[in-house]
Design goal:
The complex is a heterodimer of chains A (214) and B (439). With 214 residues, chain A is of the alpha/beta class. Chain A contains 11 helices and 6 strands. Helices cover 69% and strands 10% of the residues of chain B. In chain B, a hairpin with a 2-residue loop joins strand 4 (365-373) and strand 5. Classes of the chains: A alpha/beta (214), B alpha+beta (439). Chain A: Residues 144-214 form the HTH luxR-type domain.
């Protein structure tokens, strides 16, 4: 799988390249600023772009802006955004175009290699990967909303995992339950939140997030 | 129809003008009356000041001064009414005087050491003459009315009694043609009356400001006092903040990193002998590093929130709203970049107010408005909760006030029991370069 990487800190960039190559990804370009990122994306058309939110020269949200622009230029380009901090505002901006292939993770998550690689694959395949911190915050801000209150504790947990981007199988593994049980929880949640049933996992997550963002 | 409208408008404008002239005339007359009082007050005060110098008079001085200041403040207000604001220049009264002779003497000293006291006295003396300008509108009106009366026919009985005409405004009124001329002159004067009051009052207001306004030295002194106070507050706050950061680092991330070193040491030792144990320790080490990172992140967020650095105040406040369980509506009109310290102060103040609204007010909805206008940043936070917030009560609101005071900013809170709570903050500050992107 071909990857374009944008990260301004040298150590982190080298570490990421090593990690990705250890898992048989091909890093076709590794850049350290937003302008080079746009150029690299246009040139290589990678399978996924891994982008740091904060990039030179402004050290504001240059990476995020470059990523959003790239999505407009190359529709459906999978992008995984990494950040030292997660802001719901940025998560919403990334999800705003309503197509999949978006991930937004804390840099810490790199430490858990398997989960990180899993997130990359999910995003590259058109799914989503939201950091648990974003999802937890989303749940807090909507805790007072009526339909969410109707969920049981287990169902809330399942909803959180769905929002992070987990598949039925992944949810079953994380909660150590059978896949059938997970599917049952999910259809209960859909019923309680009055969301239309849908087998496509990516659209499922986006529907959940769209509901939470409302 | 349109003509009628214009006519009504014009009539309304004239009526308003006449009403204003009438009110100004009354104020002018009051000023003139006050100038009479000014003379007696001057004499009395001067008398007691002299008596004070030779030993007695201390008893009456503070009481007389009260009257002087009252009269002067009235004139200051009258000046403000015609658009010449005059600040009150007196040294602030000490919080408390002893109830005995020492206290009374300190009170006299407080009065006599204030340059404003002496400027008041000079004003009293000069105002005896200058105050008479306040009578000008009344005099003009009287003269105009007299002309109207004479011209309307009063000249006839006067003529009969004296055998000669009566002078009115350069006109000897002894026949109907001359009476008509006098009427015209009186009409002109009546017309002029509408315009004469304001300038007369203004002239007096400038005179008042000249003597009763704060002297430059006083303005500077009070400014220095204010700056010294806010500087020491700012330093205290900053020192406390540094202590907090140091403590958080020492007890948090630093301790975790030390622990991490220990764990890795153990891993090194167990690597070959007990690989299972080593693996467990490594997992622990990773978790510990994640925790250390989280603590560092929270610390950074407390010092300077990344979203504020990345997006500026408006979006940072929006982000606060998104994170809050309350329904938060943010309206922002800040067409440029604010100074970073101001931005940070307002951000943390709004954050504190949102927390208050969530914790104490029982509100469902909070409206936040940010507006930069005339080199002042206005921030308004309003919730629909049960109110009853008290500036004296919590340390939070007091903290916000002190935070803003460093920038000459003010906090104004209205929170009647039963709600709603509306907090207004104002911080003077200039905008730098207009923001290039806000998307």
């Amino acid at each position: 799988m071909r990857v374009v990487l944008a990260e301004d800190l040298f150590l982190l960039r080298q570490g990421l390249i090593q990690l990705l190559e250890a898992y048989d990804f091909e890093v076709v370009a590794a850049v350290d600023n937003g302008r080079d990122l746009s150029a690299a994306l246009a040139e290589h058309r990678p399978d996924i772009a891994i982008v740091d939110v904060r990039l030179p020269p402004t050290f504001t949200t240059e990476g995020l802006q470059a990523a959003l622009q790239a999505r407009r230029d190359i529709p459906g380009l999978p992008i995984l955004v990494l950040s030292q901090n997660v802001e719901q505002m940025y998560a919403r901006e990334l999800l705003a175009d309503g197509t999949g292939g978006i991930g937004y993770l804390l840099k810490d998550s790199i430490f858990d290699n398997d989960q990180f690689i899993d997130a990359i694959s999910r995003v590259a395949a058109g799914g989503t990967a939201m950091d648990p911190a974003v999802v937890a915050q989303l749940m807090v801000s909507h805790a007072r909303d009526e339909p969410l209150g109707a969920l049981t504790a287990r169902e809330r947990h399942v909803l959180e995992l769905m929002a992070e981007g987990c598949s039925n199988m992944a949810i079953a593994q994380r909660l150590t339950i059978s896949e059938g049980a997970a599917a049952k929880h999910i259809s209960n949640i859909f019923a309680k939140l009055m969301l239309p049933q849908d087998s496509d996992s990516n659209r499922r997550v986006l529907a959940v997030l769209a509901y939470l963002n409302a | 129809m349109r003509t009628t409208g214009t006519l009504t408008d014009a009539l309304g404008a004239w009526r308003a003008r006449a009403r204003r002239a009438g009110a100004d005339m009354a104020v002018g007359a009051a000023i003139a009356a006050g100038s009479m009082a000014a003379l007696s007050l001057f004499l009395v005060t001067a008398y007691f000041v002299i008596l004070f110098v030779i030993g007695i008079g201390a008893v009456a001085l503070p009481i007389v001064t009260k009257g002087v200041r009252w009269l002067c403040n009235l004139n200051r207000r009258a000046a403000g009414r015609v658009g010449v604001p005059v600040a009150v220049p007196y040294h602030p009264e000490p919080p408390e005087f002893e109830k005995d002779i020492v206290g009374w003497m300190r009170r006299c000293k407080w009065i006599l050491m204030d340059p404003a006291t002496w400027r008041d006295l000079l004003w009293l003396l000069l105002n005896t003459a200058a105050g008479m300008i306040g009578l000008v509108p009344a005099a003009v009106l009287y003269y105009a009315l007299e002309g109207l009366a004479v011209g309307a026919g009063l000249w006839q009985p006067i003529l009969d009694a004296n055998g000669s005409g009566r002078w009115y405004c350069f006109i000897t009124v002894d026949s109907w043609p001359s009476a008509l001329l006098a009427l015209a002159a009186a009409g002109g004067l009546l017309f002029a009356w509408l315009w004469v009051s304001r300038p007369a009052l203004k002239a007096h207001a400038y005179f008042t400001r000249f003597l009763l306004g704060p002297a430059e030295r006083t303005v500077l002194a009070s400014r220095v006092r204010h700056l010294a106070e806010t500087r020491s507050t700012a330093l205290d706050t900053q020192a406390a903040e540094l202590r907090r950061i140091e403590r958080d680092l020492h007890d948090g991330a630093q301790a975790r990193l030390v622990g991490l070193g220990f764990t890795l040491g153990a891993v090194e030792r167990n690597m070959d002998r007990k690989p299972e144990e080593a693996r467990r320790l490594l997992r622990e080490a990773r978790e510990s590093s994640v925790l250390a990172l989280r603590e560092l992140r929270d610390l950074v967020r407390g010092i300077h929130p990344p979203v504020l650095a990345e997006r500026g105040l408006a979006d940072a406040v929006r982000a606060l709203g998104i994170d809050s369980p309350l329904e938060v509506v943010v309206e922002a009109d800040v067409p440029g970049a604010l100074p970073a310290p101001v931005e940070s102060a307002v951000y943390f103040s709004v954050s504190e107010l949102l927390t208050n609204a969530l914790k104490h007010s029982g509100a469902d909805r909070v409206e936040i408005a940010l507006r930069h206008e005339g080199d002042v940043l206005h921030a308004r936070v309003a919730d629909d909760g049960r109110g009853g917030a008290d500036l004296g009560g919590g340390t939070g609101l007091h903290g916000i006030r002190r935070r803003l005071a460093t920038f000459d900013g003010t906090l104004d809170i209205s929170s009647p029991v039963g709600g709603p709570t509306v907090t207004k903050m104002e911080i003077p500050c200039a905008l730098s370069s207009p923001k290039t992107s806000s998307s």
